[in-house]
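Meet our chain:
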Amino acid sequence: MSRSHTARTSQTRTDWLARRLRASIRRGVLAPGKRLPSSREYSRTLGLGRNTVLAAFGKLIEEGWLVARHGSGTYVADPIPVIPAHARRAPADLAAAFSPTLSRRGMQLASTDRPRTTAFAPGVPDVSEFPFTQWLHCLQRASRRVTPRMLNYGQGGGLAALREALCQHLALTRGVLCDPGDIIITSGTADSLLLCATLFAEAGDGAVVEQPGYSQAAGVLRSAGLAVSAVSVDAEGLDPLRIQTAAPPRVLYFTPCRQYPLGHELSMARRAALSAWAQRYGAVLLEDDYDSEFVGSGEPRMPMRAAPGGESVVLLGSFSKIMFPGLRIAYVVMPHALAAQAQRAAARLFMAARPWEQLALAEFITSGRLRQHLLRMRASLARKHGWFRQLWQKELGDVMRLAGDAGALHGVAMLPPGGRDQPLVQRLREAGFAPEALSSMCLERPRSQGLVIGHGSLSMGELKRLGPRLVHEIAAGLRARA
């Protein structure tokens, strides 16, 4: 290596360290008067030559950012230099000052602010009812069964033990017959949707979602480059005859067993019409079976995947609502003919590891603990629903009707004609409650106006304490805008 090249490399490292120290002083990370580590410590920590560190210190001493005190060390100047606004920056500083900006999509995502509380937030279970002691025992036993291979990059599709347990669970509780190889484990419904959008559509293709519906689904499909259109729902669910897309439709995301958030079941006639529509356009149906295990009246509703001829439907499921959101385990049941290809694609897109949780969940399912938990939760939700409905009927029943079945985590209350849900939701947020505006779940006009109220997120004690306050705040908000 030439001497000139070595000198240039040393100078580059000196400038780099000087910029880092200067920026830290400007931002207050290194406060005025603070003693810096010795040049030997910087050299050892950063892997730089000591002469490089001394040169950076000397540069900043000359500029007035640092002060050397003989026998004591090097300190940040106090006060630090004042740089006039019109002062010319060196090219290196201009490069260091560059700040990336968010895209329009990024700005839209960043503008969505989660409420600070989960009180009455829809789609959130009461985690205090989850049997965490039993879950901890499953995790402890799983930790003894984890192999070195499992600690490597995740196996495509997830661990075989969990996929086999899910096959049994889906057959017993949802009537869905599949092979373990048809199942792909993901880290959430958003990942499942992104996987399906990538596998089944090209950028610019059309995608269809329900209105009102799960707003995150539309966001994920858009982020995958798809042109998203909405189809309105009524008491029979979505109507395929109303579907209009700007681009050829390739995927349709829907919730037929319990439409989110309105709770309607897709009628048999609409199911047949939707299957015919999918065949006509060559579109893939993405069925989200999000919390149908909680349906309280009668047996759980049958997913389209379980119906005759439903093998081509892609089934999405998650454990966030039936167990707890922090678990971050979901799954996709692929059509059998595409399962092997989908497994290989998933292995490249997602490294679904978390072997402890996957093994523990497999045992939680096969031991019957999940089934027991679901039975307890179904009974608990029915009690909460009954109590909250009585409170609502007494205080607000003559103004707003609360819809929702006994096993739902939430209910929907439509506002009176002319009402606007966004200001009311803002008032409730300020009061410490987290219902969502129904209009925020609509992509296109006209947007329905109402409240989506998650009474299932609270314990019965919390519900009895906070329920009257919520109802009082809603009534006050309606009066204020009357």
About this structure: Residues 128-369 form a domain with the Aspartate Aminotransferase; domain 2 fold (CATH 3.40.640.10).
